[in-house]
Amino acid sequence: MAAVQEARRADAASAEKSATDATPPAQSSGKSRKGLIIGAAVALVLLGGGAGAYFYVSHGASTTAAAEPTPAAPAHKTALYLTLKPDFIVNSTAVGQRRYLQTSLSIVARDPAVIEAVNAHGPIIRSALINLLADQDFMVLQTDAGKQGLRDKMRTTIDAALTKEGATAGVEAVLFNSFVMQ
To answer: Which of 45, 96, 134, 143 is the most exposed place for a label (fewest CB within 10 A)?
Structure first.
C-alpha cells in the first residue's frame, strides 16, 4: 500500500514537472494553456491507473476468492415416515399376571429405498417385532429409559431383518404413535 502511494506521488510530481517544463514563461498564454491541459490529463491518467492498480491488488484477491464456488455441504435429506399398520398387540406375563401391550409404530428413514424395503418385507419385520415386544419385561417398559431401549432394539431388529433379506437397511428411528400397557 505504501508503494502504491509513493508511485502516486512520483507520478504527480513528474506530471507537475513536465507541465512546468513544457511552458516556459516567455511563451504566449495559448501555448501555456495547452501544455497545462495536456499535463493535467497525463496526471489524471497516471493517478487513475495507480488507483485502479491499488484497488485491484487490495480488493481483487478477496473478490476472486469470493467468486469461486465453495463446495456445497451435502444436502440434508428430508425425513420420510412410514406408519406400520395394523397396531402391534402382544400378551405377556409379568409377576404371575397376564399383561397386554398395544402400540402403534412409525419408522423414520431418509432413503426412499429403505421405506420401499420395509413395505416389501413387512411380514418378516412384523413377526420379528412381535417376538421382540412379547419378550419385554413389563416393569422395565414403565420407565422412559425402558421405552427408549425398546425403540433402539426395534430399530436394530428392523435393520437386521432388512439386511437378512438383502434389502437396503438404514432406519434412523422408531417412533411410538401410541403405547398402551395394561
So the answer is: 96
pLDDT in tens, 5-53: 555 565 655 555 554 555 555 555 667 788 778 877 777 777 777 777 7
Which superfamily is assigned to 80-181 in CATH? Band 7 domain (3.30.479.30)
The Cα 32–Cα 28 span in angstroms is 7
> Is there a contact between 118 and 141 (Cβ–Cβ < 8 Å)?
no
- What was the pLDDT predicted at 32? 76
**Which residues, including other chains, have CB under 8 Å from residue 97's CB and lie 6 or more apart?**
none
Give the residue from 155, 88, 87, 161 showing the smallest Cα distance to 124. Answer: 161
CA–CA distance, 19 with 27 (Å, rounded to integer) = 13
Residue spans of the domains in the chain: they are: 2-67, 80-181
Residue 125 burial by Cβ neighbours in a 10 Å radius (0-12, 13-18, 19+): buried
Q: 73-109: per-residue pLDDT in tens?
A: 566 789 999 999 999 999 977 777 888 999 999 999 9
